Amino acid sequence: MKYINKAIFINYLRCPTLGWMTKRNIIPKFIGINSRFLKFEREIILEMSHKLFSNGVNAWKSKIDVAALYARELIFNPNVKTIYEAYFIATDYLAKIDILKKYDGNVLSLFEIKPSTKYKFKYINDMSFDAMVLAKAGVNVQRYALLHLSSDYRFGMDVSRFFKILDCTDKVELKINEFLNLSDEIIEIIKSKNMPRPYLKKNCKNCPVFNTCIGKGIKNHIFDLPHLSTASLERLVTSGIDTICKIPSDFELTKAQKIVKNCVLTGANYVSKDLKTYIHNIKQPFYYLDFESVSTALPLYEHVGPYSQFLTQFSIYKTDIAGNIIDHYEYIVDQKKDCRREITEKFIEYLDIEGSIMTYANFERNIILKLMDIFPDLSGKLDGIVKRIVDLELIIRKNYYDVNFHGRSSIKKVLPILIPELDYSHLKIKNGRDAVTAFAFMAMGVYGSKKIKQTKRNLLKYCAMDTLAMVYIHQFLIDVVERNESINL
Ligand code: SF4
Fold first, then answer.
1. pLDDT for res 99
2. 199 within domain boundaries
3. Distance from the CA of 18 to the center of ligand 1, in angstroms?
4. pLDDT digits (tens, 9 = 90+) for 255-286
5. pLDDT at position 487, please?
6. Atom 2 of ligand 1, residue of closest alpha carbon
7. Which domain covers residue 100, as residue numbers?
8. Is 212 part of any domain?
């Protein structure tokens, strides 16, 4: 990228090192099925937004410099009232504007499209970047508005009801000068051969380059402490402490953080005294339940709105004694229609009426609670299921810690440590996000029948693997309890 675009600028605001790296393309790009879907969906939403501003001219050209010249020409063309996807270049900056609309007297309004049903503060930064570039380019815009999705929209309604306009002029105008004042300094730092020196801060925690940047070669980083507050982090950083081992004994930590610290210092795993009770309270026969769902900005079925969540498939393992699988039930819905009723009746049938139902985290419980509202006639049976749910992640979080968990407890983090032989590498679909996306592509009619068959097979395999992982984790925890009992004899 020859120019400083929005991504580089916004990343710079998070961290100058990150902005510098973004300019040089050394930030890992997520090019999986999920980012392909987001792009696909955004393009449809952009096209839909154009219908609100009829007779516009699309300023897009394959060469950016040509596109920028064309956009400028359109701005001064009195016959053009609306411009879509217009590039503007000013000094070293490049902005792409979703929609520019000319009102009477050549008053210009900028519309930024966001495929979200809610306003987010970060959108102001996005719009202010565009506003800064337009100001530098000498294009005078009087109004800045966000075009976001309406949660009241339902499948099949007119496109005019799909969007809501939120005027953000006041907020953007407050930011423009701040950005203009920073802009020259940012150009200088971003274009410099020398990378700005990285320093530890809260943003580093979820930074895509953490392991190759400030976290490189550091074992037991303070980020491995669960739920570290900003205040605690700032105190540690100010004292130059980046690893758990260096935290002084009088530094205040939560109970969970103390457990992690102790495991790091002793190298021993943590097993709580209560683990035995938790494990003994799980009733036979044992069920292990995993759901997958879909949620898209563009509603998929009648009577539903943007981002409505649909249960799409389940996998249930049943064991009589832990590890001894006696049944496996699985189900995936017809992607062409709303199958919430069918799938709900199916898992109710398979889960029967006795025995504990193990899940990993709260997802399945929350889906079932929502289904109780949708199908009041099934709420008694669903409530019975909810009461039998045992959250294995919660049991681990409270009662077991391995120093290799690095402060995490998600199934994808703990499984390779507890059960290294069970891995997802051979699967075509390896995580929940890809599962959601694969289903969404099918439901939106993008895949042909052969690809649908293949995708459904892959989805079933993925869901079954997540469920099987719970069978093994349960067994692992039983073994831990038994080992501990024999030590204490
Ligand atoms: S890890 Fe921290 S210092 Fe390094 S680029 Fe990311 S935010 Fe900046």
1. 97
2. no
3. 6
4. 999 999 999 999 999 999 999 999 999 999 99
5. 63
6. 204
7. 6-191
8. no
The domain total for the chain is 3
Look at residue 399 and tell me if it is in a domain: yes
299 and 330 part of one domain: yes
**Rounded mean pLDDT of 105-117?**
92
Same domain, residue pair 284 and 261: no
- In this predicted structure, the answer to whether residue 489 has a pLDDT above a threshold of 60 is no
Ligand 1 atom 3 nearest Cα: 198
pTM for the predicted model, two decimal places: 0.92
Our answer on whether the CB atom of 198 is closer than 6 Å to any ligand 1 atom is yes
* Cβ of residue 95 lying under 6 Å from some atom of ligand 1: no
Residue of 447, 464, 335, 429 lying closest to 34 (CA atoms): 429
Does a structural domain hold residue 470? yes
- CA pair distance 259, 448, nearest whole angstrom: 51
Ligand 1 lined by 137 (C-beta under 6 Å):
no
Q: What is the CATH number of the domain that holds 95?
A: 3.90.320
Among residues 393, 465, 453, the alpha carbon closest in space to that of 425 is found at 465
Give the atom of ligand 1 at the shortest distance from the alpha carbon of 21: 5
Q: Compute the average pLDDT of residues 100-129.
A: 93
Among the residue ranges 21-30, 112-121, 219-228, 364-373, the one predicted with the least confidence is 21-30
CB of 18 within 6 A of ligand 1: the answer is yes
The 10 Å Cβ neighbour count of residue 414 is 24
| CATH number of the domain where residue 321 is located | 3.30.420
Distance between CA atoms of residues 20 and 189, nearest Å: 7
- Are both 147 and 62 inside the same structural domain? yes
User: Are 287 and 238 in a shared domain?
Assistant: no
* Gap between the Cα atoms of 132 and 185, Å rounded: 14
Antiparallel, parallel or unpaired: β 325-332 and 309-319: antiparallel
* SS3 state of residue 330: strand
Q: Is the CB of 17 under 6 A from ligand 1?
A: yes
Query: In terms of domains, do 185 and 94 share one?
Result: yes
Going by alpha carbons, the residue nearest to atom 7 of ligand 1 is 204
27 lines ligand 1 (CB under 6 A): no
| pLDDT band with cut points at 50, 70 and 90 for residue 27 | confident
